[in-house]
Amino acid sequence: MTTVQAIRVSPEWLDLRESADAAARSLDLVRQLRSRLPAGGRLVVHDLASGSGSMGRWLAPLLPGPQHWVLHDRDPDLLALAEAPGPAATVEMRLSDVTRLGADELAEANLITASALLDLLTDEELAALVGACAGAGCPVLLTLSVTGSVQLLPADPLDARVAASFDEHQRRITPCGRLLGPDAGGVAAGAFRRRGAEEVVVRPGPWRLGAEEAALTAEWLVGWVDAACEQEPGLAEEIRSYAARRLAGQLEVTVGHADLLALPR
Ligand SMILES: C[S@@+](CC[C@H](N)C(=O)[O-])C[C@H]1O[C@@H](n2cnc3c(N)ncnc32)[C@H](O)[C@@H]1O
Prior knowledge:
The chain is an alpha/beta fold and 265 residues long. It is built from 9 helices and 10 strands. Strand 6 (173-174) and strand 7 form a beta hairpin.
């Protein structure tokens, strides 16, 4: 039995979003986590569900000294695209299901990270992931969990309805259970607190997409609308003409994400 839903993420989508992701992640949380890293020596960073390694490309230059990055993902094609995230860093790839990590797999970690992962998980999978991270006893930085907050400018009367259908789609039931979707960030924060974290800090990490991000905005909108139609097939025709209208004009979009830093005692 698989415990993960086999949603493949394309490398093209990860490329397209990489600079918006980098601009959105909280630098304040990086400042806080830096003060909790060991002074001197090589840092071992485990990036869970790394995809092609975007988190390392953003974070490695913000961390001190030599680093060893361990990239975990269940998709070998994405892992094959990743490289060491900087001249002072080494990298190793592990093909793994991050919701089934054993305690020994993270034992050497000085820092655990993930990005754009939590909303894809079920409650049970997230609990297992938080358990493995908390067991490692190091800071954990989990960025860019979708919150469900979306603002489009100019506004359209259908925006709220599409957003609600999209959120329900994110919470859909799969063979592995109900996905957490926009609830994931809050569930993760509660789980770290219950497992005794000294501090759990949450910061907003919204995408702010304007004219310069038109390609990402268009791709995001198509995915957003497709998911809403799948959730509410009866609305498909109305939503499709909404999408055509939206794609024809200039659009500014803010997509809410939350970043979470859990600090151990
Ligand atoms: C939206 S992508 C984000 C990738 C990368 N963290 C980034 O920010 O570019 C989600 C990633 O999670 C991976 N993934 C999802 N569930 C997983 C699981 N249970 N175990 C390992 N990888 C998983 C997917 O293969 C994909 O690479």
